[in-house]
Each structure stands twice: as structure tokens, then as C-alpha cells.
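Sample intake sheet
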Amino acid sequence: MSLATAHEGYEYQDLLTGYFILNEIFEERDAEFIIDRKEYDNDKIDDLLIINKGRKFKKQIKYSNADFNHVLSKPDLSTDGTYSLSLDTLYYAATYSRCNFFRNLR
């Protein structure tokens, strides 16, 4: 991936993050936002965390263009290859996040 494509990806991530934040504001929800921070060392869903009304929403944003066009496919979800998106890794991310969130509410 070229450096220009990486910069486009960061711009895309910034625009979508702005969209999700504005959506919370327009819906008049009291929300907390955590951007680009891992909850634990191998966190795979770390681009945006929205916390509101006892709920937690995690977002992972991916970008592609004509030069770097990757369509999510079964091998991406069945192995921990290039993208580290195997279903068991994603399941762990979801359950770790959920368990720690409810633990912190007590």
C-alpha cells in the first residue's frame, strides 16, 4: 500500500468518525467518544468507541480505492492471516469489551 493510499485511509476514517459523532449530537444523545485507542493489547476494533446510555459501540473503519481494493471474504474471517480478523479473534474482542464495560458499571 502506498503512503498516499494510507493517508486517504486516515482521511476516510476521520470523516466517518466525524459522521458518527455528529449523529450522536443531532440525536441529542449524551455520549462519550474514544478515538484510536485499544482497550487491550490485541484489540482489533479500535478506531472509534461510542459510549451512551449504558451501551457501548465499537467501530473499525477500513478503506479501499481503485489501487488497493480488498473485498472482505471468507478466508479473512476463517484464518488469522494478513488482517487478523478470524471469527474467534473478533468474538474475543466483543466479549472482552462487553465484560469490561459491565464490570466498570458496578
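Comment: The mean pLDDT is 81. The chain has one domain: 3-105.
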